[in-house]
Amino acid sequence: MSCCSNPSQYQPSNPISDNDIVKAVNDAYSAKAKVGTTTTYAKNVAESFGYTEEELKSIPDEAHLGLSCGNPVATANIKEGEVVLDLGSSGGIDVFLAASKVGPTGQAIGLDMSTDMINLARKNANKQNLLPPRVSFVQTLLTEDLPVVSDSVDVILSNCVINLLPLAGKAKVLKEAHRVLKPGGRIVLDDIVAKEPLPENVRNDLSAYVGCISGAIELNEYKKLLEDAGFKNSLFVDTKSNLNVYYTAGSSTDKSTIGCCSPAPKSESVNAPPSFDANLWVASYQIYATKEGTPDPNAEKLETALLRSWDAYPRPQSTPAAVTADEIAKLVRDASKTPSDFAVIDVRRNDYAGGHVRGSHQHAAQTFYDNLSAFTEKFGKTNQVIFYCQSSNGRGPRCAAWYQDYLNQIGNEESTAYVLQGGIKGWLSKFGGQNDLIDRD
């Protein structure tokens, strides 16, 4: 069934679990990220929900996939220097528009559960040379704790996503939104709201859930979720948008017409015309609410609102081997060794003081991934590239793995990444008094 089909023609089905819902939504939108949509279709849908031609020209075509049911950036009153969080960022459309408003001193962060959507958004960001921490995309389930620092975000956006979560997930993400907002922070959500109770057979239809209808809740229930999350004085505005635009905006792709109130992702119903008017069952609303309190003008400005800065980058796939301090000491003391034989890389930054492996190069972990190409150009012909951080339990192994992944990707077999076992702590503990092995500031 498509989400805009007549619910009365379907027989009741067995209840679907929250896990079933999350998996179905993730599978469908991951497929959408891979297949994409036609530029004309995406543009027509976006303009129908308030995006201007100027806004759409300012971002990559692949950033908008015809999945919107509003334009939250247009009414969020985003200011320069603010931190903006987008829940369910898709190809990145609202993150990129927000980034243009917060400028180089602000942050725009997109969260999405689909790894394929995150990969697409990061690719789009690279096209515009938008890098973390200014623009970050992070893969995470919105039904779990968000990887964001408490009281760190000025504005939260979401565009036709909350309805896709199971009821418990809706409650969870709104509570998390309240947690991460600064006092006085605000949310602007565009979402689908049910006009009346939906039949159980519709509620339990996964394809209708993916199409944004089965997960829609009534206005009073939505307000109650916001109140329970801690938000006061929420405002719901019916945008009066025509949800049948998904059928009148032109052709999408042959196998990826997935969007708010679009036909369900089943081969037998893809691109089939709807047999029921979606506008009779659901409506597109813009939802506003604020977190009580006043922002602290003396609060420390965070480099990133993410709990873990490295979440903004791909998860490493390689597991570089460890080398002992004694093995590296032997290399450092061997006068016959040349720069092409080995290099030692210190990825510390703020904790860089206190001593280093003799002759090591500093390349801070925070910016390492963005500079992989230049780093490889410098060290790609070095046989052993050995990384370390404080204890070599986090940043060192992570950067080594990113380097090895990159070497594998480009087919470089001349260089190999390693990790200093025990990090600089172990090195200084073992060789602290041996000046031929230690560099000091």
From TrEMBL:
**What's its EC?**
2.1.1.137
Indicate yes or no for the key word RNA-binding: no
Query: Domain Rhodanese: where?
Result: 338-436
- Give the reactions, separated by semicolons, that this protein catalyses: arsenic triglutathione + 3 [thioredoxin]-dithiol + 3 S-adenosyl-L-methionine = trimethylarsine + 3 [thioredoxin]-disulfide + 3 glutathione + 3 S-adenosyl-L-homocysteine + 3 H(+); arsenic triglutathione + 2 [thioredoxin]-dithiol + 2 S-adenosyl-L-methionine + H2O = dimethylarsinous acid + 2 [thioredoxin]-disulfide + 3 glutathione + 2 S-adenosyl-L-homocysteine + 2 H(+); arsenic triglutathione + [thioredoxin]-dithiol + S-adenosyl-L-methionine + 2 H2O = methylarsonous acid + [thioredoxin]-disulfide + 3 glutathione + S-adenosyl-L-homocysteine + H(+)
One Pfam family named in its UniProt record: Methyltransf_31
Annotated Gene Ontology MF terms?
arsenite methyltransferase activity
Entry's Gene Ontology BP terms:
methylation
Q: Does the keyword Methyltransferase apply?
A: yes
**Protein name stated in the entry:** Arsenite methyltransferase
Specify the taxonomic lineage: Eukaryota, Fungi, Dikarya, Basidiomycota, Agaricomycotina
